[in-house]
Amino acid sequence: MTANSIKIERTTAPKQKPDENQLGFGKYFTDHMFIMDYEEGKGWINPRIIPYQPIMMDPAAKVFHYGQTVFEGLKAYRAADGRILLFRPEQNFLRLNRSNSRLSIPDVDGELALEALKQLILVDQDWVPSQEGNSLYIRPFVIATQATLGVAPSHNYHFMIIMSPVGAYYAEGIHPVKIYVESEYVRAVRGGTGNAKTAGNYAGGLKAQEEATSKGYSQVLWLDGVHQKYIEEVGSMNVFFKIGGTVYTPELNGSILDGITRNSMIQLLKHWNVPVVERQISIDEIYEAYTNGTLEEAFGTGTAAVISPIGDLYWNGHQMLINGGHTGELSQKLYDTLTSIQQGAQEDPFSWMVEVQQKAILS
Ligand SMILES: *Cc1c(COP(=O)(O)O)cnc(C)c1O
Question: Does domain 177-327 have CATH number 3.20.10.10?
Fold first, then answer.
């Protein structure tokens, strides 16, 4: 199948665009979406860009009952010179296929998916925000659509891409948040689905998040599911700690999501010769570093916020105020550097950015 076979049906009723100062996150969707179907024996067929619209599904569709679904999240940015840039999109489609494999969903052709995404962005190019800090959030996902209740991998799927113009996660710049170390619920266990971007992981985390919010915290820090001792992630972000000049992040152990922002931060730190270590880290170790004064900074990383500094960490009766509750120097530098590479404002030494060429679309 070639990219030329992507059919394009344009909307006859374009929506009014939202105010760029009031975008929020994931509230507005562009005029078009991409969809293709999978049929057992035929593979992925009928790739098309169509007006954004509801989809018809049988109530017996497997995704509703057994959660056979995966998703991705990435962003397109508008550079000051008008170019549209994607951040490491090929990594998202590689990870989509790793998630697919874990959920017994057939592979999606990563090149076709990227070409489909580029064409979709071109069709909706007026939706890529231009105000600094704003971007176009992109949500590719797969759902199992076969209408039978047997617990078995589906024979039918949709692969879709929808897009939403979003504001800067922190309108007033990054600021530290309060985090609750969760010691009752767990997010994932090794051998489970923690390293796949699949719906059930998030549904299962809502309860802990809700309880933390009611106690005045913005998110939870997840500990491992076996010993409830080793640090895994913060909310739906990866987590880093700077202790005595070295940056530590939990190693990818099978239950942690392999974040593209995480990987990019590690590359930036190495580029700057800042020592960075991926290993198992216990919460006791963090508390010990806090009490002996060597816990310098802590932050979460992910596509939506890029960096979310941790100002306050509550664990088992102990309140740890990190860097006086202020954003650390290194956290700020990582944020400033990555966001300016993403906006095309700074040299891109790693060739991370992929330009969406504003060529004529053949269709
Ligand atoms: C998506 C996600 C992340 C961050 O991944 P990025 O590729 O950096 O956006 C981290 N943890 C979880 C659980 C996630 O779902």
Answer: yes
